[in-house]
Specification:
Chain lengths: 458, 401
């Protein structure tokens, strides 16, 4: 096993840190997942229940405002609406800061990286007022608790989460022969298609339009109830059984367990094993991973029925994972997180920042780098390829951030020569050393190190 | 020339002359500009509903298929088709023959109805395979005198349609790069051995110079200011207008082919609202291009194309699901507009593709090929073999005036 503590931290974690000792071995990476989730406890992120409550308050204030236009009650309601919106923006910014703080403090950061990977695999975008900013609650509820469980559990949690149901229009999809059908409510196949194409089998698997339609009929009934929380509505469900990929699900009485059953089956399909294996290999190792690596992970996925720690173990134990050549470029979130981890700013400074400052120093620069956090273009999430993240405009934004924002967040910048060692470890090379020694100011030196390909690659 | 353009420009800029106005630079930068016509390709991501945008209200089946969507207002085009009301500011263009449509078009992509595969194939233009870059890049490879500035991909993403062996430019309007002179030199050292990063930096430096932006920031305050102005520039909901303004600006200069994307066309639910918003954006983008291009508008073709159309029937949630046959916009002084082109397949149950989608009657690539042929004078055989392999150009009419 060509284990290397630097590669471990940079490729599989959130980077090197002056406050964390080198990773002792491969098992230490996996141990992070079995040990308690201290970073989450230290920097909590709100669950969906809180957002659902906020959504209800917002809706109530809005109807109050509408019913009382031009009166003092209406005026007060309008102020309440503004206050709620302001608060939700603060919640969203807090979630971004807490995600970064977790990445800064984590022993390895493998859990953070997996969270980002799976949140991207199950991409959602928030829909409607208040919930537009609530993506982090989906990740907190459906993704993070299932990172070291089975893929089936994560799939079921993600697909039935209110944020997913709303994003892919499941909440208003009802069976054409159900009692709930009326104008504006009928079948919508958006979620069914994306579960097959993106979440499980992959687009190259042999499913057909007929499978999409039947699966969409089977999914009817998934919806939301009190404060937008998950609820199964039997009256929405299409009567009768549906045949998806040759198997019949459901019968006379609508039962959410039939939906869990099809998701369980989809979660262990050979095509799903390969699809997930390939995505992991592409994300962590290379845009064009070897067939050997993909099959090795897929085989482990298949024989363990998608037991995720086993699957990660397969990824980490394959020699390709330790290729000394860093073939991937960090996505902007990974770049910003690893830069902060290497800088190790006073955490209270990050904790104190408000939504406006978070936007100015973190969110908007990441958008300029090409990753508007929580707002990807579609349900396929962020691109993977090196070329997508090395456009001239993206690189210019990374450089401009690297030379300016570190000093805002850490006014007492380290000596660039020492910082290069901290940030790069064995990835240090003579060009970076030359730049660290030659920089005329600390802010430029630190910026050059963070902007260097050695730091940008993983 | 041995001296790289970037080095040359950097040196020239050191003399403090304005680049565009400099008699020293102008011949080198512009002398070999390939022709005077312009092509803008806008990729509408998400699957624009062509049946909602250009409605066949003369088709007796429309109202039954789309009880709520077809009930809203549209503006008559030709007695059979009506234009979505939100696009009505484009009617003067239609009347002057500077706006036309190709209906019931699609790429050869069928049946899986995946956005992402559909978009890839639309941008690849190959019909089935990926890996040969995008069709605009293959066009650039065949344009005499094409340079990196000739083809411009605008926005935070690098677009597949523009990618390939021909050098092209990528930039988003709000980006800047300002470093002190010593930092810039050190950065070049740090990037020197990594070709991917080196090329990106070179291009970023080139572009900031060419756009006449001051590339030097000697103090921390200046550098931070630059970051803040980038953040400020990215604010607000008019990003689509910035794309169009920037495209027009580049096309007035050395660029001849520009591409960018407009997203949000995936209207599974409450389509009326989404369509209104998106159509207004697209309309504003076309009008902004016309305004920004000024006299050059007469030599311009703008194509707005999408990965697929949507189901002929409204779905259960006042929206539409992924379909097949779709619609392409053609605008600009160079197009022969005032017409809805395309063989109309009808909306009878039996005429629908797989009983659900508008039947595609023409390969969208044939129209794009006709535009390329009419604008740039490329041989038909070249278009059919290398730009859009396998396409038969004669299946679409000539659409360039």
């Amino acid at each position: 096993m060509p284990f290397d503590p630097n590669i471990a931290a940079i490729r599989f974690g959130t980077g090197l840190s002056p406050n964390v000792s080198p990773i002792s071995g491969m098992s230490a990476i996996l141990d992070e997942l079995s040990d308690g989730d201290a970073p989450a406890a230290q920097f909590p992120i709100r669950d969906f229940a809180q957002w659902g409550r906020q959504f209800r308050l917002h809706r109530e204030a809005r109807s109050l405002e509408r019913a009382n236009r031009g009166t003092e009650t209406g005026q007060a309601a309008r102020q309440e609406i503004r206050a709620i919106r302001r608060e939700t923006r603060e919640w969203q910014a807090e979630a971004l800061r807490h995600s970064l703080l977790r990445a800064i403090q984590a022993p390895v950061g493998f859990r953070e990286r997996l969270e980002w990977f799976w949140a991207d695999h199950f991409t959602v975008r928030g829909q409607g007022p208040v919930l537009r900013e609530a993506v982090s609650s989906f990740v907190a509820d459906a993704i993070r608790p299932n990172i070291s469980g089975s893929f089936a559990d994560m799939l079921k949690a993600a697909v039935t989460h209110p944020m997913m149901l709303r994003y892919l229009n499941q909440t208003s999809s009802v069976g054409p022969n159900s009692n709930a059908v009326r104008p504006g409510r009928g079948l919508n196949e958006n979620l069914a298609r994306e579960v097959l194409e993106l979440h499980t089998l992959g687009v190259d698997a042999p499913y057909r339009q007929g499978d999409v339609t039947e699966f969409a009929l089977l999914l009817t009934g998934l919806g939301t109830g009190v404060e937008q929380s998950f609820r199964f509505h039997p009256s929405f469900a299409e009567p009768g059984a549906e045949v998806v990929l040759g198997s019949a699900y459901g019968g006379e009485t609508a039962d959410v367990n039939d939906i869990y059953a099809v998701l369980d089956d989809l979660s262990i399909y050979p095509a799903t094993a390969r699809h997930i294996a390939r995505k992991l290999a592409v994300h962590f190792v290379s845009d064009s991973p070897s067939e050997a690596l993909v099959s090795y992970i897929a085989d482990r996925f298949f024989v363990t029925n998608g037991d995720l720690p086993d699957v990660y173990e397969a990824l980490l134990s394959h020699p390709d994972a330790w290729n000394p050549e860093a073939q991937k470029v960090k996505r902007p979130l990974e770049f910003v997180a690893s830069a902060l981890r290497a800088l190790h700013p006073d955490t209270s400074r990050l904790l104190r920042a408000d939504a406006a400052k978070t936007r100015q120093y973190i969110w908007a620069p990441m958008q300029l780098m090409g990753q508007a956090w929580e707002y990807p273009n579609g349900p396929d999430g962020w691109p993977e390829s090196v070329s997508a993240w090395t456009t001239p405009q993206g690189i210019a934004a990374r450089i401009q951030w690297a030379i300016t924002i570190p000093r805002v967040l850490k006014p007492d910048l380290p000596d660039p020569r020492a910082f290069a060692e901290t940030a790069l470890g064995s990835q240090m090379n003579s060009a970076v050393r030359f730049a660290a020694e030659g920089a005329q100011t600390k802010w430029e030196g630190v910026g050059l190190i963070l902007a260097s390909p050695s730091f940008q690659r993983r | 020339m041995v001296v790289s353009r970037r080095k040359f420009l950097t040196r020239a800029a050191g003399y403090g002359c304005s680049l565009a106005a400099s008699p020293l630079i102008t011949p080198i930068t512009f002398a070999s500009a390939p022709g005077d016509v312009r092509l803008v390709v806008i990729i509408l991501r998400g699957g624009m509903d062509g049946l909602d945008m250009v409605r066949p209200y003369g088709d007796p089946n429309l109202r039954a298929l789309r009880p709520t969507l077809a009930a809203s207002a549209s503006v008559d085009l030709d007695g059979f088709f009506g234009l979505h009301e939100a696009a009505s500011p484009l009617m003067p263009l239609w009347q002057s023959g500077e706006l036309g449509f190709a209906h019931a078009v699609s790429t050869p992509y069928r049946d899986k109805r995946s956005h992402f595969d559909g978009q890839d194939l639309l941008e690849a233009g190959t019909g089935s395979s990926l890996g040969q870059g995008g069709w605009l890049n293959r066009l650039l490879q065949r344009m005499p005198g094409a340079r990196a500035q000739t083809g411009f991909s605008i926005g935070a993403e690098a677009m597949l349609v523009m990618s390939g062996n021909a050098p092209v430019s990528n930039w988003s309007p709000e980006t800047e790069l300002r470093l002190s002179e010593p930092s810039r030199r050190l950065l070049e050292v740090v990037y020197h051995d990594d070709p991917v990063f080196r090329d990106a930096l070179d291009e970023a430096m080139d572009l900031t110079q060419i756009m006449n932006r001051d590339a030097v920031a000697d103090s921390y305050a200046e550098a931070l200011n630059t970051m803040e102005s980038m953040v400020e520039g990215s604010r607000g909901g008019d990003g689509h207008l910035r794309l169009a303004q920037f495209a027009a600006e580049r096309l007035r200069a050395e660029t001849r082919i520009a591409a960018f994307s407009l997203s949000g066309w995936d209207t599974h639910q409450n389509q009326a609202r989404g369509m209104r918003r998106n159509t207004t954006q697209l309309t504003d983008v076309i009008l902004t291009l016309r305004e920004g291009l000024g006299a050059d508008w007469s030599k311009t073709a703008v194509l707005a194309m999408t990965e697929f159309g949507r189901t002929a029937r409204e779905n259960g949630t006042r929206g539409t699901d992924h379909g097949t046959g779709g619609l392409m916009f053609m605008a600009g002084g160079a197009v022969r507009g005032g017409q809805v082109y395309g063989g109309w397949p009808g909306l009878d149950e039996g005429a629908l593709y797989q009983g659900r989608d508008l039947m595609p009657t023409t390969d969208i690539r044939a129209y794009a090929g006709q535009v390329i042929s009419g604008l740039f004078g490329l041989e038909r055989s070249q278009i059919e073999s290398s730009i859009f392999p396998g396409v038969d150009l004669t299946t679409a009419p000539g659409v360039i005036a």
